[in-house]
Amino acid sequence: MSLVYDYETELKIGIMENLKNRDSLQDRLLNGLFRVPFLCLTKEEVTKAIDMGLLDSEKCIIKKIGIQESYGCNTTDIVALEKEIYTDNPDLCKPEWKHELILFACDVLSIARGYPKLSFLHRDNSGKLDGYITAYEGVRNSKRIIYITDWMTTKDSKSVGGRLMVHFLTVYAKEYISKGILLPIFANARANTSREIVISNLDLLANIVNRNLSDKNKAIYFKVNYNQKRLEAGEVFYDTVFAPCHVIKS
Known about the structure:
Blueprint: H1 7-10, H2 15-20, H3 22-32, H4 43-51, H5 58-61, E1 66-69, H6 75-85, H7 96-113, E2 120-123, E3 129-140, E4 143-153, H8 158-175, E5 185-190, H9 194-199, H10 202-210, E6 220-232, E7 235-246
Parallel strand pairs: 4-5
Antiparallel strand pairs: 1-2, 2-3, 3-4, 5-7, 6-7
Helix pairs in contact: 3-4, 4-7, 6-7, 8-10
């Protein structure tokens, strides 16, 4: 099967329609998951995940209220929300096929490798999506990392962003830090929004992690490293690494 695939032409219908056409979606995943940043998924892993229920849509039909895990079949909702958020600069929106690949890659990691789910979304009391965080474990410069690809909420639901980050860090603490696995968190942080919010709340974020540790000797703080500065759609982004370090007690 060729690894060259025209997603821009292929992805013309909503993801729920694609779930009905399992062969089409399966082909796109088998041919495209190698494009996901910092991941090296094999076709065998994708096939295993498909056989174990990757394309089952039932979990996305019932729209629960509050925070919940996000799946590949949430792609359409997430794309619509991103367009709503970036009305001032629509060029910042990812094409739908990129969201699809990343979300399904997260599912494959969970199903085929047993990795923790680190991607979550939030629905308001009417069931409407108003925020999400997409993240997964990958490899960067030959080292394991947690990569946050997106962290977004609507302007009217800013508190949701904080709740999503708390939930993400709670899982991160239990699945990694509590086990002595100090994986750094990597993000392409937008200069005037997410980057500033996180940098100004580093102590708070570390405290969220630490309060979820049963062994307080494993308490951490975050050290921030800035790498490449990027310009995307006229806005500044920074490759930013939040490295957890153990607190040294005197």
